[in-house]
Amino acid sequence: MRGRAGFTLIEIMIVAGLAGVIASAELAPLVFTVGSLDEAQSRWGVRRSPAAAVERIYSDARRVVANPSFPSFKVIHKSGLSRENDDRLVIWSGAPKFEGKGTGVVVYKIAGGGPFESEKRGLYRWTIVGEASHGAASGDSSSGGAKSPMDVDTDALDAKDAKLTLAGAEGVRFQIYGGEKWEDDYAGALPTALRTKIFTSRGTYSHTGRFPNAAKK
């Protein structure tokens, strides 16, 4: 008796149809899950983003590295008619080491969104490593008038050289507490506390973080 040479067209169509039904049944939960994640991201992402941005700032601040030759923590207060809440935070931090770099300067400020800029408006983070003189970076004060790595021209920083920390941020304020009062401008060691306010179209997010080991840094 001769064996069958192959499947008939009807048998092939039946098998293909069954495979399609099985694939659809298995794919449906996956599509639903992805849709649910997108919905959750849309619903909760913006609300949580300021908190995540602030946590990143305080993580960099907690890794401040004391230096006898220059202040390791600076708040530059800027606010005017053309732009309000335009403060800058400058930290000599060990945080870049966790990014495969060395100890360096971390800067936070609002940038982007200009008429000739492709970067979005928001709060940005710069890491500047290896651009200071060896004497200043190593803490050797014998290098004369060597420029401190903390003497960053924050106005000249370009958003394309930074990482976007919080899209949509329209302004930021930093204040430090040195033990007696809150200050808008500061240059010195790690302060007792840092207050951060982030301004967005949805409102203002404010957080105060304290540094228990400030006296040691």
UniProtKB/TrEMBL annotation:
This is Prepilin-type N-terminal cleavage/methylation domain-containing protein. It comes from Synergistes jonesii. It comes from the Bacteria. GO terms for cellular component: cell outer membrane. It is found in: Cell outer membrane. The chain crosses the membrane at residues 12-32. Keywords: Cell outer membrane, Membrane, Transmembrane, Transmembrane helix. InterPro entries: N_methyl_site.
